[in-house]
Amino acid sequence: MSWKTAYRSLYYQDAPEPDDPDLIHRETALLTIDIQNEYMDRPDRGSLKPDEQAEYDRWTPFHERMQGTVIPTIQRLLAACRSSEVETMFARIACLKPDGRDRSLSQKKPGFNYLLMPYQERPSQFIDALRAEDDEIVVCKTTDSALTGTNLRLILQNMGIKNVIVTGIFTDQCISSTVRSLADESFNVIVVEDCCAAGDHALHEKELEVINMIYCHVMSCEELAGIMGLSL
């Protein structure tokens, strides 16, 4: 099944197949979101208590997908974009105040989304394998959407960017929120399905179905490269 027929929700089951998007390189940006040390660091399982080991195991499928699929595929896509005229950008969760007073409410609520990651500390940094290079733009956000809490919208407009390719984590949270914000601002959005992950793969698949066709087009890295003429 190709990207033109995959991830169809009830709303788009009978919709005609979309045309290939016109992704002119100099008008396109690759945006990688939130693949930070906070999410990717793991302790030695043997050092954990039984209840902590259970939590560790619950997250193992996510980490296996990240290490086996998402991170290496983003690396390939980044390299291809860096050797073309496609702009490469990054967005990370990072607060300016050590106590996190500047965070949005969604990052102050208790539970998984409670995020206190001061911008200078290690947890808020991108993992070494996906660090920004040279003059690549990195925006810091205290919101789920990379547009809502940053000047990214203005940056994209000033640079003449019309199309945004989105990769990163988590599909059902910051990816989805960013995609919807971009679509509302009339950017053409591509989500690369094998360059994203949610905490649970079922959530990943369902969220792609929710956002596909209306807020973005969902395709694989190989399909995107074929459309854009990128060499992976």
Number of helices: 7
Mean pLDDT: 97
What's the CATH class label?
Answer: Alpha Beta
* Major sheet description: 6 strands, parallel
Radius of gyration: 18 Å
| Helix content, binned percent | 25-40%
Estimated structural class: alpha/beta
End-to-end gap: 21 Å
Overall shape: globular
What's the CATH H-level superfamily name? Isochorismatase-like
Strand order across the largest sheet: 3-2-1-4-5-6
CATH topology: Rossmann fold
Strand content: 15-25%
Q: Please give the domain count.
A: 1
| CATH architecture assignment | 3-Layer(aba) Sandwich
Note the run of SSEs as H and E. Answer: EHHHEEHEHEHEH
Number of strands: 6
Low-confidence stretches: none
Q: What does this protein look like?
A:
This protein has 232 residues and is an alpha/beta fold. The protein has one domain (24-228): Rossmann fold. It is 33% helix and 16% strand. Helix 5 links the parallel strand 4 (163-169) and strand 5. It is globular. The model has no long low-confidence stretch (mean pLDDT 97).
Keywords:
232 residues; alpha/beta; Rossmann fold; six-stranded parallel sheet; 6 strands; 33% helix; 16% strand; globular
Strand and helix map with partners:
Elements: E1 28-33, H1 37-40, H2 50-58, H3 60-82, E2 87-93, E3 137-141, H4 152-158, E4 163-169, H5 171-184, E5 188-197, H6 201-211, E6 217-219, H7 221-228
Helix pairs in contact: 5-6
